[in-house]
Amino acid sequence: MQEEKPKQLLHLVFGGELSNLSTIEFKDLESLDIVGIFPDYASALAAWRGKAQQTVDNAAMRYFIVHMHRLLDPQN
After folding, report:
1. Which residue, 18, 44, 47, 54, has fewest beta-carbon neighbours within 10 Å?
2. Are 16 and 27 in contact (CB under 8 A)?
3. DSSP state of 29
């Protein structure tokens, strides 16, 4: 019997320094940190936590998880 692969639910993790803490507007778009694209939420969350922990001393630095699978297939 063939083992079924789990469905890929792609997630993008990225971050950068915000120009204002009350909005999501980046100070410098050219210096955004693209952490990577991950096959599931759990691995994206682990990468997000790692990066957030590394930058904990900079209050203006924020990392985000984008659910790419929702953008690629908005019907589902």
Report:
1. 54
2. yes
3. G
